[in-house]
């Protein structure tokens, strides 16, 4: 199991489109993926669960991956949480 703590940088937080984009990427990995904010620990492959965290700029979230391709998942999903913006020009929703 690998973990990484990330501070959300998107000025708009993770609203519906970025959450959907993130969970779609998470579903590409067969490993178990969780996000933790405070006392809430959720399945990162569920759009509704990710949205329930109400992630806004400056929030600290822990990404936890366990299983096959966990290093790749941690790197890719961690980058998304750090860099995901609502800007189609940069390849994000």
Automatic annotation (TrEMBL):
**Pfam families membership:** PTS-HPr
Localization in the cell: Cytoplasm
Boundaries of each HPr domain copy?
1-91
Identify the InterPro entries for this entry: HPr (IPR050399), HPr-like (IPR000032), HPr-like_sf (IPR035895)
Q: Which UniProt keywords apply?
A: Cytoplasm, Phosphotransferase system
Q: What is its main location?
A: cytoplasm
Q: Which PROSITE patterns match?
A: PTS_HPR_DOM (PS51350)
CDD domains recorded for this chain?
PTS-HPr_like
| Coiled-coil region list | none
Which PANTHER family does the entry mention? PHOSPHOCARRIER PROTEIN HPR (PTHR33705), PHOSPHOCARRIER PROTEIN NPR (PTHR33705:SF2)
**UniProt-recorded name of the protein:** HPr family phosphocarrier protein
Q: Which organism is it from?
A: Paenibacillus sophorae
